[in-house]
Amino acid sequence: MSRSAPTLQIATSPHITSGASVETIMRHVVWALLPVCLFAIYSFGLSALLLLATAVLSCVGSEYLLNRASGRPDTIGDWSAVITGLLLGLTLPPGLPLWMVAVGGITSVALGKFLFGGLGYNIFNPALVGRAFLQAAFPAAMTHWAPALAEGRFTSVPASTLALPFSAPALDAVSAATPLTQWKFDGEPTASASLLLGTTAGSTGETCAVLIVAGGGYLALRRFLNWRIPVTICATVGALSWALHAAEPARYPAPDFMLFSGGLMLGAVFMATDMVGSPITAAGSVVFGVLIGALITLIR
Protein backbone atom coordinates (compact mmCIF):
# COMPACT_ATOMS: atom_id res chain seq x y z
CA MET A 1 0.00 0.00 0.00
CA SER A 2 1.63 3.23 -1.16
CA ARG A 3 1.66 6.34 0.89
CA SER A 4 1.07 9.76 -0.66
CA ALA A 5 4.06 12.06 -0.57
CA PRO A 6 3.90 14.83 2.06
CA THR A 7 2.96 18.27 0.81
CA LEU A 8 5.42 21.11 1.30
CA GLN A 9 3.64 24.40 1.94
CA ILE A 10 5.55 27.62 1.32
CA ALA A 11 4.11 30.84 2.75
CA THR A 12 5.17 34.18 4.13
CA SER A 13 5.59 34.71 7.87
CA PRO A 14 4.26 34.46 10.51
CA HIS A 15 4.34 30.68 10.51
CA ILE A 16 2.86 30.20 13.99
CA THR A 17 -0.78 31.25 13.93
CA SER A 18 -3.75 31.28 16.27
CA GLY A 19 -5.87 29.32 13.83
CA ALA A 20 -8.19 32.26 13.13
CA SER A 21 -8.89 32.77 9.45
CA VAL A 22 -8.34 36.05 7.64
CA GLU A 23 -12.10 36.44 7.31
CA THR A 24 -12.58 36.03 11.07
CA ILE A 25 -9.91 38.59 11.96
CA MET A 26 -11.14 41.13 9.42
CA ARG A 27 -14.73 40.72 10.52
CA HIS A 28 -13.80 41.47 14.12
CA VAL A 29 -11.90 44.57 13.00
CA VAL A 30 -15.07 45.75 11.24
CA TRP A 31 -17.04 45.19 14.45
CA ALA A 32 -14.46 47.17 16.41
CA LEU A 33 -14.77 50.04 13.93
CA LEU A 34 -18.58 50.13 13.92
CA PRO A 35 -18.97 52.19 17.15
CA VAL A 36 -16.53 54.76 15.77
CA CYS A 37 -18.49 54.90 12.51
CA LEU A 38 -21.84 55.21 14.29
CA PHE A 39 -20.53 58.04 16.45
CA ALA A 40 -19.18 59.77 13.34
CA ILE A 41 -22.65 59.60 11.81
CA TYR A 42 -24.14 60.95 15.05
CA SER A 43 -21.64 63.83 15.08
CA PHE A 44 -21.77 64.83 11.42
CA GLY A 45 -25.09 63.40 10.22
CA LEU A 46 -25.99 62.42 6.68
CA SER A 47 -22.75 63.68 5.17
CA ALA A 48 -20.74 61.20 7.27
CA LEU A 49 -23.14 58.36 6.41
CA LEU A 50 -22.88 59.05 2.68
CA LEU A 51 -19.11 59.46 2.90
CA LEU A 52 -18.55 56.15 4.70
CA ALA A 53 -20.94 54.30 2.39
CA THR A 54 -19.23 55.73 -0.70
CA ALA A 55 -15.77 54.85 0.61
CA VAL A 56 -16.76 51.24 1.35
CA LEU A 57 -18.63 50.72 -1.92
CA SER A 58 -15.81 52.19 -4.02
CA CYS A 59 -13.22 49.97 -2.29
CA VAL A 60 -15.30 46.79 -2.53
CA GLY A 61 -16.32 47.54 -6.12
CA SER A 62 -12.73 48.28 -7.17
CA GLU A 63 -11.46 45.05 -5.66
CA TYR A 64 -14.18 43.02 -7.37
CA LEU A 65 -13.60 44.58 -10.80
CA LEU A 66 -9.80 44.36 -10.58
CA ASN A 67 -9.97 40.70 -9.62
CA ARG A 68 -12.35 39.98 -12.50
CA ALA A 69 -10.20 41.88 -15.00
CA SER A 70 -7.00 40.09 -13.95
CA GLY A 71 -8.51 36.63 -13.58
CA ARG A 72 -7.75 36.44 -9.88
CA PRO A 73 -10.07 34.74 -7.38
CA ASP A 74 -12.76 36.92 -5.85
CA THR A 75 -11.52 38.25 -2.48
CA ILE A 76 -14.25 40.68 -1.44
CA GLY A 77 -15.51 38.07 1.02
CA ASP A 78 -12.46 38.44 3.26
CA TRP A 79 -13.69 41.85 4.53
CA SER A 80 -10.33 43.55 3.89
CA ALA A 81 -11.80 45.90 1.27
CA VAL A 82 -14.56 46.85 3.72
CA ILE A 83 -11.95 47.74 6.34
CA THR A 84 -10.01 49.80 3.80
CA GLY A 85 -13.17 51.70 2.94
CA LEU A 86 -14.09 52.33 6.57
CA LEU A 87 -10.59 53.50 7.49
CA LEU A 88 -10.38 55.73 4.43
CA GLY A 89 -13.75 57.28 5.20
CA LEU A 90 -12.82 57.85 8.84
CA THR A 91 -9.73 59.84 7.82
CA LEU A 92 -11.61 62.24 5.50
CA PRO A 93 -13.41 65.53 6.22
CA PRO A 94 -17.17 64.95 6.60
CA GLY A 95 -18.12 67.37 3.81
CA LEU A 96 -15.71 66.04 1.19
CA PRO A 97 -17.40 65.65 -2.24
CA LEU A 98 -18.49 62.07 -2.74
CA TRP A 99 -16.79 61.80 -6.12
CA MET A 100 -13.49 62.58 -4.44
CA VAL A 101 -14.22 59.91 -1.85
CA ALA A 102 -14.80 57.39 -4.66
CA VAL A 103 -11.51 58.39 -6.28
CA GLY A 104 -9.79 57.81 -2.94
CA GLY A 105 -11.39 54.38 -2.62
CA ILE A 106 -10.30 53.33 -6.10
CA THR A 107 -6.77 54.60 -5.44
CA SER A 108 -6.59 52.80 -2.08
CA VAL A 109 -7.34 49.42 -3.62
CA ALA A 110 -5.66 49.82 -7.01
CA LEU A 111 -2.42 51.50 -5.91
CA GLY A 112 -2.22 50.64 -2.23
CA LYS A 113 -3.19 46.98 -2.44
CA PHE A 114 -3.74 45.44 -5.88
CA LEU A 115 -0.55 46.84 -7.42
CA PHE A 116 1.54 44.99 -4.81
CA GLY A 117 -0.24 41.69 -5.29
CA GLY A 118 -3.25 41.92 -3.01
CA LEU A 119 -3.87 41.24 0.67
CA GLY A 120 -0.69 40.32 2.51
CA TYR A 121 1.69 41.88 -0.01
CA ASN A 122 1.01 45.60 0.34
CA ILE A 123 3.82 47.57 1.97
CA PHE A 124 1.64 50.52 2.97
CA ASN A 125 -1.76 50.74 4.59
CA PRO A 126 -4.10 50.98 1.55
CA ALA A 127 -6.45 53.47 3.22
CA LEU A 128 -3.55 55.84 3.93
CA VAL A 129 -2.39 55.55 0.31
CA GLY A 130 -5.82 56.73 -0.79
CA ARG A 131 -5.85 59.56 1.72
CA ALA A 132 -2.36 60.70 0.76
CA PHE A 133 -3.44 60.82 -2.88
CA LEU A 134 -6.51 62.91 -2.03
CA GLN A 135 -4.43 65.24 0.14
CA ALA A 136 -2.02 65.86 -2.74
CA ALA A 137 -4.70 66.14 -5.43
CA PHE A 138 -7.35 68.14 -3.58
CA PRO A 139 -5.65 70.07 -0.74
CA ALA A 140 -8.34 72.75 -0.39
CA ALA A 141 -11.20 70.29 -0.02
CA MET A 142 -9.16 68.11 2.33
CA THR A 143 -8.64 70.97 4.79
CA HIS A 144 -12.25 72.15 5.09
CA TRP A 145 -13.82 70.96 8.34
CA ALA A 146 -17.47 70.82 9.31
CA PRO A 147 -18.52 71.55 12.91
CA ALA A 148 -19.59 68.59 15.02
CA LEU A 149 -23.15 68.20 16.31
CA ALA A 150 -24.47 70.91 13.97
CA GLU A 151 -28.21 71.52 13.78
CA GLY A 152 -29.90 70.01 10.76
CA ARG A 153 -27.15 67.47 10.16
CA PHE A 154 -29.75 64.70 9.74
CA THR A 155 -32.00 66.62 7.36
CA SER A 156 -29.50 68.14 4.95
CA VAL A 157 -25.96 67.73 3.67
CA PRO A 158 -23.30 70.35 2.88
CA ALA A 159 -23.37 71.65 -0.69
CA SER A 160 -19.87 70.27 -1.21
CA THR A 161 -20.98 66.68 -0.55
CA LEU A 162 -22.96 66.42 -3.79
CA ALA A 163 -20.63 68.54 -5.96
CA LEU A 164 -20.27 67.34 -9.54
CA PRO A 165 -17.06 65.54 -10.51
CA PHE A 166 -14.09 67.75 -11.35
CA SER A 167 -15.97 70.90 -10.41
CA ALA A 168 -14.91 73.29 -7.69
CA PRO A 169 -16.99 72.30 -4.62
CA ALA A 170 -19.11 75.04 -3.09
CA LEU A 171 -17.70 75.00 0.42
CA ASP A 172 -20.18 76.02 3.10
CA ALA A 173 -19.63 79.30 4.87
CA VAL A 174 -19.96 77.58 8.26
CA SER A 175 -16.74 75.75 9.03
CA ALA A 176 -14.80 74.88 12.15
CA ALA A 177 -11.16 74.71 13.11
CA THR A 178 -9.77 71.44 14.37
CA PRO A 179 -8.04 71.34 17.78
CA LEU A 180 -4.64 71.13 16.09
CA THR A 181 -5.44 74.15 13.91
CA GLN A 182 -6.61 76.18 16.91
CA TRP A 183 -3.39 75.43 18.75
CA LYS A 184 -1.16 76.10 15.75
CA PHE A 185 -2.60 79.49 14.81
CA ASP A 186 -4.19 80.77 18.02
CA GLY A 187 -2.34 78.89 20.76
CA GLU A 188 -5.70 77.76 22.19
CA PRO A 189 -5.85 74.26 23.70
CA THR A 190 -9.03 72.19 23.57
CA ALA A 191 -10.51 70.72 26.74
CA SER A 192 -9.56 67.09 27.30
CA ALA A 193 -13.20 66.10 27.83
CA SER A 194 -14.12 67.42 24.37
CA LEU A 195 -11.28 65.48 22.79
CA LEU A 196 -12.15 62.26 24.60
CA LEU A 197 -15.87 62.46 23.84
CA GLY A 198 -15.52 63.66 20.26
CA THR A 199 -17.36 66.99 20.35
CA THR A 200 -14.78 68.76 18.18
CA ALA A 201 -14.32 69.32 14.47
CA GLY A 202 -12.01 67.07 12.52
CA SER A 203 -11.95 64.10 10.19
CA THR A 204 -14.98 61.84 10.28
CA GLY A 205 -13.47 59.32 12.68
CA GLU A 206 -10.74 61.13 14.57
CA THR A 207 -12.97 62.77 17.16
CA CYS A 208 -14.05 60.24 19.80
CA ALA A 209 -10.90 58.83 21.40
CA VAL A 210 -12.87 56.75 23.93
CA LEU A 211 -14.53 54.60 21.26
CA ILE A 212 -11.29 54.16 19.35
CA VAL A 213 -9.49 52.93 22.47
CA ALA A 214 -12.43 50.65 23.32
CA GLY A 215 -12.29 49.11 19.84
CA GLY A 216 -8.56 48.58 20.16
CA GLY A 217 -9.00 46.97 23.56
CA TYR A 218 -11.56 44.57 22.12
CA LEU A 219 -9.17 43.51 19.36
CA ALA A 220 -6.28 43.19 21.81
CA LEU A 221 -8.32 40.92 24.07
CA ARG A 222 -9.16 38.74 21.06
CA ARG A 223 -5.46 38.78 20.16
CA PHE A 224 -6.21 40.27 16.76
CA LEU A 225 -4.08 43.31 17.55
CA ASN A 226 -0.56 43.67 18.95
CA TRP A 227 -1.16 45.92 21.95
CA ARG A 228 2.53 46.85 22.19
CA ILE A 229 2.36 49.05 19.10
CA PRO A 230 -0.41 51.50 20.15
CA VAL A 231 0.76 51.51 23.77
CA THR A 232 4.35 52.30 22.76
CA ILE A 233 3.23 54.99 20.31
CA CYS A 234 1.11 56.70 22.97
CA ALA A 235 3.79 56.32 25.64
CA THR A 236 6.41 57.86 23.37
CA VAL A 237 4.19 60.77 22.35
CA GLY A 238 3.18 61.30 25.99
CA ALA A 239 6.75 61.27 27.30
CA LEU A 240 8.17 63.54 24.60
CA SER A 241 5.30 66.02 24.73
CA TRP A 242 5.51 66.12 28.54
CA ALA A 243 9.21 67.01 28.33
CA LEU A 244 8.60 69.68 25.69
CA HIS A 245 5.63 71.12 27.57
CA ALA A 246 7.62 71.25 30.80
CA ALA A 247 10.38 73.15 29.03
CA GLU A 248 8.17 75.62 27.12
CA PRO A 249 4.48 75.36 28.08
CA ALA A 250 3.50 78.36 25.95
CA ARG A 251 4.93 76.78 22.82
CA TYR A 252 4.21 73.07 23.24
CA PRO A 253 0.83 71.60 24.26
CA ALA A 254 0.31 69.24 27.19
CA PRO A 255 0.50 65.45 26.70
CA ASP A 256 -3.27 64.91 26.92
CA PHE A 257 -3.84 67.31 24.03
CA MET A 258 -1.18 65.61 21.93
CA LEU A 259 -2.60 62.16 22.59
CA PHE A 260 -6.29 62.80 21.99
CA SER A 261 -6.27 65.40 19.22
CA GLY A 262 -6.02 64.75 15.50
CA GLY A 263 -5.87 61.25 14.10
CA LEU A 264 -3.24 59.87 16.47
CA MET A 265 -5.54 57.40 18.23
CA LEU A 266 -7.14 56.14 15.03
CA GLY A 267 -3.74 55.70 13.41
CA ALA A 268 -2.09 54.09 16.43
CA VAL A 269 -4.89 51.60 17.08
CA PHE A 270 -6.20 50.66 13.64
CA MET A 271 -3.45 51.56 11.14
CA ALA A 272 -0.04 51.11 12.75
CA THR A 273 -1.18 47.64 13.88
CA ASP A 274 -1.87 46.47 10.32
CA MET A 275 -0.68 42.85 10.40
CA VAL A 276 0.96 43.14 6.99
CA GLY A 277 3.07 46.21 7.61
CA SER A 278 3.86 45.89 11.31
CA PRO A 279 6.60 43.80 13.04
CA ILE A 280 5.78 40.33 14.34
CA THR A 281 8.22 40.24 17.28
CA ALA A 282 7.69 41.95 20.63
CA ALA A 283 10.98 43.86 20.46
CA GLY A 284 10.34 44.92 16.89
CA SER A 285 6.87 46.17 17.81
CA VAL A 286 8.29 48.33 20.60
CA VAL A 287 10.94 49.86 18.34
CA PHE A 288 8.30 50.38 15.66
CA GLY A 289 6.03 52.18 18.12
CA VAL A 290 8.82 54.37 19.48
CA LEU A 291 9.81 55.47 15.97
CA ILE A 292 6.23 56.31 15.02
CA GLY A 293 5.62 58.20 18.27
CA ALA A 294 8.82 60.20 17.89
CA LEU A 295 7.98 61.04 14.27
CA ILE A 296 4.47 62.20 15.21
CA THR A 297 5.83 64.47 17.93
CA LEU A 298 8.53 65.85 15.63
CA ILE A 299 6.05 66.67 12.84
CA ARG A 300 3.59 68.32 15.21
Describe this structure in words.
Helix content is 54%, strand content 0%. It is an all-alpha fold and 300 residues long. The termini are far apart. Helix 1 runs antiparallel to helix 8 (209-221). The mean pLDDT is 88. The chain is globular and about 75 Å long. The protein has helices spanning 22-44, 46-70, 80-90, 98-110, 126-137, 179-186, 192-197, 209-221, 228-247, 255-260, 264-271, 282-299.
What is the topology?
Elements: H1 22-44, H2 46-70, H3 80-90, H4 98-110, H5 126-137, H6 179-186, H7 192-197, H8 209-221, H9 228-247, H10 255-260, H11 264-271, H12 282-299
Helix pairs in contact: 1-2, 1-3, 1-8, 2-3, 2-4, 3-4, 3-5, 4-5, 8-11, 9-11, 9-12
Helix/strand structural class: mainly alpha
Number of helices: 12
* Poorly predicted residue ranges: none
Average pLDDT: 88
Order of helices and strands: HHHHHHHHHHHH
State the end-to-end CA separation.
70 Å
Level of helix content? 40-55%
Strand content: under 5%
Characteristic key phrases:
single chain, 300 residues, mainly alpha, 12 helices, 54% helix, 0% strand
Briefly summarize what is shown.
The protein is an all-alpha fold and 300 residues long. It has helices at 22-44, 46-70, 80-90, 98-110, 126-137, 179-186, 192-197, 209-221, 228-247, 255-260, 264-271, 282-299.
